[in-house]
Amino acid sequence: MTNDRPVGELLREWRHRGRLSQLDLAIHAEVSARHISFVETGRTIPSSAMVLHLAERLGVPLRERNRLLVAAGHAPVFRDRPLDDPDLARARETVQQVLLGHEPYPALAVDRRWNLLLANSSVEVFLHGADPALLRPPINMMRLGLHPDGLAPRLRNVEQVRGYLLPRLAHQAARSGDPQLHSLYEELAAFGPEPEPRPPDPTEIALRIRLAHRGTELCLVNTVTTFGAAFDITLDEIAIEAYFPADVETRRFFRTRQNAG
């Protein structure tokens, strides 16, 4: 891992993303505002414990905490391994059990860039009819959902879905500083009218999707779960998307599909 920016500059950037003043951060971290100032200007090099303490208060993702540690001259402490790593076999099995346990309704796991990691068989309703180019691994579920050659033509409420997903993707890109997420947002925003820029509404806890599938209109509600207590970068970045039937017809469709299988 390499880094050419000082830790103080990176911490200041994260503080700005959280819209905190130095005093705000000092109060949250229970240190002096003078110390925060000295860290940000490079007059003080924080210990590894202080880097992690400030990163926790700023809500910095584990991957970026490693970057902060390296910038301060310390060794990274969070491991970064693919989900198929033997050491993560138990975690992978747990994720698979969650997805299988949600059947007959769709459930899938994605990484921080919305690339598909695991899915149950019911996710086929989202993949059906998509351009094969969009189905080449790694399948990006955000792209698949909003691309005109993907799911978008079958969405009966595509503008509502775009209005829900794009602001969240923009917020995620801005919060993480990930250039690939910025690029993904620009690509998908170009496919239609850009929604009004606004932060995600915390009261919008679920996305309702109306989807045409094999002559039936399905109505699904989407929820997202993350592993809040993870201490591994891979697990920290996994999100599980679970879909629930929002009406009797949709519930009947998936139950019938299950019985037929």
From TrEMBL:
Start and end residues of each HTH cro/C1-type domain: 11-65
Lineage top rank: taxon: Bacteria
Highest classification ranks of the organism: Bacteria, Bacillati, Actinomycetota, Actinomycetes, Mycobacteriales
Gene3D superfamilies xref list: 3.30.450.180, lambda repressor-like DNA-binding domains (1.10.260.40)
InterPro entries for this protein: Cro/C1-type_HTH (IPR001387), Lambda_DNA-bd_dom_sf (IPR010982), MLTR_LBD (IPR041413)
UniProt-recorded Gene Ontology molecular function terms: DNA binding
Species this protein is from: Nocardia aurantiaca
Signal sequence annotation: none
Pfam families: HTH_31, MLTR_LBD
Protein's name in the database: Helix-turn-helix domain-containing protein
